[in-house]
Each structure stands twice: as C-alpha cells, then as structure tokens.
Amino acid sequence: QQENEDLQGKLKLSKHMSQTAGKSEATPAPSKNIYLEMKQLQCKLKNSNNEITKQSTTIKSLKNEVQDKEERVRQLQAKISRLERDLSMKRHLIEDLRSRLKASQENEKTSNETLESLERKVKAFAEDCSNKKTSIDSLKQRLNVATKEKSQCEQMYHKAKDELEKKNLKLASLESKMIETECAMTELETAASQQLHGLAKQSGHALETVQKKLLLTHDRVQEFKTFVKALTRELQHSVQEMRTKIKQAKRIGELKACKKSLSQESVQLAASILNVSTMDLEEILEVEDDEETAKTKMEFEKDKEWLQHVQKLLEAEFPFASYLTDAIMEKLNEKKKLVEEYSSLMEHTV
Fold it and tell me: Which portions of the sequence form the region Disordered (predicted)?
C-alpha cells in the first residue's frame, strides 16, 4: 500500500509537470526519458494494484479464516468452560458422595453398635422375662401358701375371738376387783402419807441438829486455822526478833572490841573530824555491810516461803496434820538454835 501511494504521488507529480510544460510556451517539450519513466511507473502501478487486489483477497480469506478460527476458539472456550463446570460439579458430586459414603459408613457403624446393643438388650429382656416367669411361678406358689395361711388365720381369728370374749368377761371381773384394790390403795396411801409426814418432821429436826453441828464444826475448823496462822506468825515474829537480837549482840561485841582497841581520845577525835557526836559515830559504826543485808533478805524470803507452805497445808485435803507438825517443828528447832546462839553470844559479851 505504501509503494502504491508513492507511485501515485510520483504519477501526480509527472502529470503536474506535463501540464505545466504544456501551458508554458517558453519551456521545452518533455523529454523521452520522462515519458518512459511515466510508462514504467504506470506499469509498476498496475502491478502494485494487481498485487493489492491479490493481497486484499488473501487478507479477506485470511480474515474469514481468522473469524472462523475465533468462532471455533469461542466454541472451544465455551466447551472448555462447560467442561470445567461439569468437572467442578463432578468433583463436588464426588466429594459429596465421599462425605455421604463416610456418613453412611459412620451411620452403619452406629447402626451396627445400636444393633449389638439392642441384641444385648433383647437377650437381657429375654433373661428378665425368664427370671420374671420363675418369680411369677414362685409368687403363685407363695400365694397358694398365703391362701392356706389365710384360711388358718381365719380359723385362729375365730378361736381368738371366742377366747377374747371369755377374757373380756374375766377383765370385767378383774376391773371390779381393781376398783376394790384402788379403794384399798387410797386408804393405804393416806395412812402412808400421814406416817411420812411424821417422819419428815422428825427428819427435819434431825437435819436442823446436823446443820447446827456442821456449823459448829466449821466454826471450830476456822478457829483452828486462825490459831495455826496466828501461831505461825508468832513463831516467825519470835524468830525474826531472835535474829535481830543476835545481830545486835554481834554488833555490841564488835563495838566493844573496837572500843577496846580504840581509846576514848581517838573516838572523840574521829567524832570532831566528822563533826558528829560519839553516839552518832557508834551508829555509823553499827551500819550493816552488804553480806549481812543479803543474808537478812534471804532469811525473810525463807520465812515468807514457810508461811505460804503452812497456808497450802491448811488448804490441802485431809490428812495434813503430820506435814503441818513437821513444818512447825522445823521453825521451833530453828528458834531453839537461835536461842542457843544468842545465849552463847550474851555469855561471851558479859
């Protein structure tokens, strides 16, 4: 087509040039070369037109073929799409059939299991039926036995009824006798109540006398406890006094020894230095040391423990007399020792 267009353009140009040459007088006539070229170009144009017609016919035939092929392709694509749809449907059907097959297999399993269970139940029911038949037979036998027993019981009932009527008669006679005995019992009760009233009065008097005796014994016990407490206090007090006397005697002996060693002038000199009287100096010299105070504290604690021990013995259960005498004798022995010590000290001081 492009060559055809080029040739047509060249032909138009040559025509135009020939026209311009014919019009203008001054220009010379066209040469043989140009004419030959024109003929060649026309020949070429014809050839090209022929080729174009051939090619257009071939193009048309090719287009028709292409259209046929496109239609065929469309038909094939439609067929393919249909086949794909069919294939997908078949796949879905296959899957559905598989799932149904699985479900049917499972159902078959469950149905088999249910069948087995039903068979077992049928067997169990058959066994139950046989057992029930045997039980019914045994119950029938029992019923026969029960009917026989019932007839026997009815006979016994009639006998018992006759005996009951006889016993009712006896009971009526016994009730009359009971009324008589009740009357006698009331009389006996009145007599017994009178006797009990008298006995209660006597026992009340006896209880009053016993209570009075108990109060007296309680008062005596309290007096005994107060006596023991007073005795223990007095013992402790006398022991403490004896200890103080012993301490005083020891101090007097020590003071006398100091006075013997010290002259009167030295005592007066010490009193004048300390700016105190001789009596005050003696009191200062009489002050206890730490060992003595600790000893007195221990003795006081021992006396306290001894008093608590005596109190516990008095509050303890019977018998406690031997323990109480031991405790009091212990304190008396201590007092005896202290008296002996005091007498020996007084003899030495004299």
Answer: 1-33
